[in-house]
Hints:
One of its GO terms (molecular function) is structural constituent of ribosome. InterPro entries: bL21-like (IPR028909), bL21-like_sf (IPR036164). This is Large ribosomal subunit protein bL21m. By secondary structure, the chain is of the alpha+beta class. It has a domain at 108-200 and 228-247. It has helices at 6-29, 44-51, 108-118, 243-253, and strands at 124-129, 132-137, 141-143, 156-158, 162-166, 171-173, 191-202, 206-211, 218-223, 226-237. The strands form three sheets. A four-stranded antiparallel beta sheet has the order 2-1-5-6, with no helix packed on it. A four-stranded antiparallel beta sheet has the order 3-10-7-4.
Amino acid sequence: MAASPALPFRIFRRSLLDTRWATRSSLRRITTVQHAATSESVPESLLRLRAHPIPTRELPTTAKPTSTPSIPKRKRRDRPQAPLPASNAPRAAPPQPESLLQDDQIDPSIYKLLPLLKSQPPYYLRTHIHGKPYLVTQGDTVRLPFLMHGVSQGDILRLNRASLLGSRDYTLKAGAPREAGKMAYIDERLFTCRARVMGVEMEPLRVKEKTKRRQRHVKHVKSKHRYTVLRIMEITVNEPPVEGDAEKLAKDSA
């Protein structure tokens, strides 16, 4: 009689189940018990060590890491800070400029031609303010491209730097400068130019956008500049000084 093929499979399955139940029963039997350490369970050698600790000189020593010497820091002297000027307070006038590059002796031809220039008003003048030229006549309004400090509305200014003075038919120009790189001006004794400070103008608010490459942030810079406005009140041609007076002025200046 042949054995059925399902019989070995049943035997193998039963053996696996028996081993599984055996491992579970063994795991259930294992329990953990917490034991508290008492003086009876601790050996006497350890108790003696606790009662008589080892002196520190007998303990192994390790070399301490060497530290680099610290350099003493220099004491920073607290310098007294200058007080900041008040924003609303008017600034002082700029220092007086150096003497103009003009000849002490007037050319003899000026004594002959200057009366002809004087006989033909109105006059025009090319005056220089802070190194910038302005071609003006009497009654003109000049808006300076900056804010002039040290002046207020209603002040009268004398513009004594000019490189050109003329009328319809005659023109007086400044000579060549004695030093290279400097500007020569007409002798201030030959003309008079006065201007009145009308006030201060403010331009409309400007907003400029500043960006950088590959960045989304946009910086807005606001500016609102102020400018001083002058009105030319007088332009006259003076009488040429007498030769004796010119020599006296040259001696006094020397």
